[in-house]
Design goal:
By secondary structure, this protein is mainly beta. Helix content is 0%, strand content 34%. The strands form two sheets. Strands 6-7-1-4-5-8 form a six-stranded antiparallel sheet, with no helix packed on it.
Length: 115
């Protein structure tokens, strides 16, 4: 039996995240921030301690339970891996490394916090 070889354009190949991995897009405006006094703090400024980051979820693996596409998640930037897809840089994190999820579908937050 002869099988034909299908050539797939690499620009059109779908990507599926595996297991507990989450693909996120880093916020572009997250680099610079303002202090409560209105002072602009550049992205290169060193901060004491660890600063967590918010990102938008682009794709999730089949074992991910608490996060969905388009949610915003909070995680430690040290627990990430960068990947470039079609010229855009994304981050890959494990679901267990995500500290919080912000989404309209969550309804009333028990913490009383809103973004």
């Amino acid at each position: 039996m002869s099988r034909s070889k299908v050539v797939v354009d690499p620009e059109k190949v779908p990507i599926r995240m595996l297991n507990d991995r989450v693909l996120v897009a880093e916020d572009r405006e997250a680099g610079e921030r303002k202090s409560s006094g209105g002072i602009l703090i550049p992205a290169t400024a060193a901060m004491g301690g660890t600063r967590l980051s918010w990102c938008k979820v682009v794709a999730v693996g089949s074992l991910v339970r608490a996060v969905e596409v388009d949610d915003r998640v909070l995680f430690d930037p040290a627990d990430k891996a960068e990947v470039e897809v079609h010229g855009d840089v994304y981050l890959v994190v494990r679901e267990r490394d995500i500290h919080a999820v912000a989404a309209d579908r969550l309804g009333d937050s028990p913490t009383g916090l809103y973004l």
